[in-house]
Amino acid sequence: DTAVSQTPKYLVTQMGNDKSIKCEQNLGHDTMYWYKQDSKKFLKIMFSYNNKELIINETVPNRFSPKSPDKAHLNLHINSLELGDSAVYFCASSQGDSFNNEQFFGPGTRLTVL
Amino acid sequence: AQSVTQPDIHITVSEGASLELRCNYSYGATPYLFWYVQSPGQGLQLLLKYFSGDTLVQGIKGFEAEFKRSQSSFNLRKPSVHWSDAAEYFCAVATYSSASKIIFGSGTRLSIRP
């Protein structure tokens, strides 16, 4: 059973389009995250939700809008895609929002904007 | 602000040889330190973490790391590497004030020579 799953695994789209990436965790965790990993492998947190409430928003452009319909899901919607949005996006989850709660990562979604 | 530096972008070692991956952090107080591994096409997996206490911490897959406050370092070691250890390794730091926000280093790619 996959603990943290993301769909799709690959996403290729044109500039200006709107796209969504879905994330689901079956670990019963109450905190979920989105990270962006750029072409140089640099990994940076974008958002964090605890019990469906936003607790971290790292100055991400408002074209990015996370949505948490329930504790097990955190989807990422991106409007008006730009070339610089090309990256691998990782979802993660943890039990609790403290740093000492291990974060479990999904396999990533590779987004390519043409 | 806290930061993490991994000075080695790519390291190659022979199978069976020992390994040390370097990590330096920048933070005024005691940081909370992590090492993650990312296998090709996969998400990140926690290898080990240091919060307090014994400065030599043991992790999964035979890895260990030592926290040295005087050198602001948290180097990862393994006495004998296996071909399956080939992956990207990330050092990370979190601070009490930043809740679940973890700052990642830029990663070190490990290749194993047969």
Characterization of the model:
The complex is a heterodimer of chains A (114) and B (114). Chain A is mainly β and 114 residues long. Chain A has strands at residues 4-7, 10-13, 19-25, 31-37, 43-50, 53-57, 64-70, 73-78, 87-94, 104-105, 109-113. In chain A, strands 2, 4, 5, 6, 9, 10 and 11 form a seven-stranded mixed β-sheet that branches. Chain A has a four-stranded antiparallel β-sheet with strand order 1-3-8-7, with no helix packed on it. In chain A, a hairpin with a 5-residue loop joins strand 4 (31-37) and strand 5. Helices cover 0% and strands 52% of the residues of chain B. Chain B has no helices and twelve strands. In chain B, strands 2, 5, 6, 10, 11 and 12 form a six-stranded mixed β-sheet that branches. Chain B has a four-stranded antiparallel β-sheet with strand order 3-9-8-7, with no helix packed on it. A two-stranded antiparallel ribbon of chain B has the order 1-4. Chain B is globular, with a radius of gyration of 14 Å. Chains A and B meet through strand 5, strand 9 and strand 10 of A and strand 6 and strand 10 of B.
Could you tell me how far the N terminus lies from the C terminus of chain B, measured between alpha carbons in angstroms? 41 Å
Summed up, the helix count of chain A is 0
| Strand composition percent of chain A | over 45%
Task: Name the average pLDDT of chain B.
Answer: 90
Largest interface: A-B, 28 and 23 residues
Number of helices of chain B: 0
Biggest β-sheet strands, sense, barrel of chain A: 7 strands, mixed
Secondary-structure class of chain A: mainly beta
Structural class of chain B: mainly beta
The portion of residues assigned to helices of chain A is under 10%
Q: Could you tell me the number of beta strands of chain A?
A: 11
- SSE order of chain B: EEEEEEEEEEEE
Morphology of chain A: globular
Q: Unreliable runs of chain B, pLDDT <50, ≥5 residues?
A: none
Rg value of chain A: 13 Å
- The fraction of residues in strands of chain B falls at over 45%
